[in-house]
Design a protein that fits this description.
The protein is mainly alpha-helical. The protein has 9 helices and 4 strands, in the order βαβααβααααααβ.
Length: about 180
């Protein structure tokens, strides 16, 4: 579906962050029987992460070293984030960057059309998938209950809304097949 359901935005990601991320995803959607593909970074290969995933009956597989093409969806997502955010904007604070990244994720899921899934949004593809799989309706309903913003986000939207390039990201905003873990230096 290309739906990005979670994102970590911090300077360093440790194994406890990964476990907590998987706990949130498991609580919201359930990950029993899901295969999660990771690269070989230390936070993913940690025994505690493996143990947690086994305990919830999720499967973990790893890409081969130096083969980003084996995890092409997430590599493409990171490329989009780099091109649409990191290279284009300077952020005045960590907080501002975090809010803009959060808003970009919403825009990516709900507004941005993707050629590889038929020029529709990830949310439209998600809806299409769950319409055909009524036994998984609880997952679909969970994503529909997601919050759509806060006062802090609105302040940033207002301050940047005059920038033509940001209108699609910041205005009119209403990660399950891939997981987005961003490690921001």
């Amino acid at each position: 579906t290309r739906m990005a359901i979670e994102q970590i935005f911090q300077s360093s990601i440790k194994k406890t962050d990964v476990i907590n991320l998987f706990r949130r995803i498991n609580h919201r959607y359930g990950i029993k029987g899901i295969t999660i593909r990771n690269d070989n970074d230390s936070q993913f290969i940690a025994n505690d992460v493996k143990t947690y995933l086994r305990s919830v009956e999720a499967h973990q597989e790893f890409t081969h070293i130096a083969t980003p093409e084996e995890n092409a969806y997430i590599e493409a997502f990171h490329s989009i984030v780099e091109r649409e955010l990191i290279r284009r904007f300077e952020f005045s604070s960590y907080y501002e960057a975090k809010i803009i990244f959060k808003n970009h994720l919403k825009w990516y899921n709900y507004e941005r059309k993707h050629g590889q899934i038929g020029r529709i949004t990830p949310y439209q593809k998600w809806t299409e998938y769950f319409t055909g799989h009524p036994e998984k309706k609880h997952i679909f309903e969970t994503i529909n209950k997601a919050e759509t913003g806060s006062a802090g986000e609105q302040l940033v939207r207002n301050s940047l809304s005059n920038d033509e390039n940001m209108k699609g990201i910041l205005n009119n905003i209403p990660s399950i097949n891939k997981l987005s873990l961003l490690n921001i230096p």
